[in-house]
Amino acid sequence: MEMATDIFRDLCQKHGIAMTHQRQVLFETLQSMYGHPSPEDVYVRVKEKVPAISLATVYKNIHLFVDSGLLREVSVHHGTLRVETNQHPHHHLICSECNQITDIDQGELGFTPGRTKLANGFKVERYAVDVIGICPQCQAKQTN
Predict the structure, then answer these.
(1) Long-range contacts of 10-18 (CB under 8 A, 24+ apart)
(2) 94 has which bridge partners?
(3) 21-70 residue pLDDT tens
(4) What are the distances in angstroms from CA 38 to CA 11, 35, 45, 61, 63?
(5) Following DSSP, what letter does each residue of 73-104 receive, concatenated?
(6) How far is 127 from 69, CA to CA, in rounded Å?
(7) In 3D, which of 118, 106, 119 has the Cα closest to residue 131?
(8) Is 59 helix (H, G, I), strand (E, B) or coil?
(9) pTM listed for this prediction
(10) Residue 56 CB: number of other CB atoms within 10 A?
(11) Domains in the chain, ordered, with CATH?
């Protein structure tokens, strides 16, 4: 547990945010969750460990983590806040029916970004491709 505390303390210091017990529990919970959890999903899990925490506090701290660069937000045009826990280069498959977001390795799309500067002088920080479609579960519902 002490090692996790030290790691989180170093991350907070690197990203310029104050370390608190609630933030540590929130961050560790996020790291333990697969996929792209919503604040509501995170709140349910964090509340088990910190019963006094509010949903507003979870939202506020997730926004703080995103604003400070500790976490990334999944593309903002999907309707709800979702955070990125996978730090490896990848893209997203987004179901237009159920809004499920699934990671896909950038190599599977045949798209491996390499340019860091575009012709118009735009400096590229990262590439994020969203593939919109219908997941297998929703396709199965459509055929029934």
Answers:
(1) 11/70, 12/70, 15/68, 15/69, 15/70, 16/68, 17/64, 17/65, 17/68, 17/70
(2) 101, 132
(3) 999 999 999 988 877 888 898 999 999 999 999 999 999 999 998 888 88
(4) 22, 10, 11, 13, 12
(5) E--GGGSS--EE---SSEEEEEETTT--EEEE
(6) 16
(7) 106
(8) helix
(9) 0.67
(10) 10
(11) 2-78 (1.10.10.10), 88-143 (3.30.1490.190)
Residue with tokens 């599977």: 108
Which two three-digit tokens encode residue 131?
């593939």
- Beta strands 83-84 and 90-95 are unpaired
How confident is the model over 88-107, as a mean pLDDT? 82
Token pair, residue 141, equals 């519902």
Residues 6+ apart with CB under 8 A from 28: 4, 8
Strand order across the beta sheet in which 90-95 lies: 101-105, 90-95, 130-133
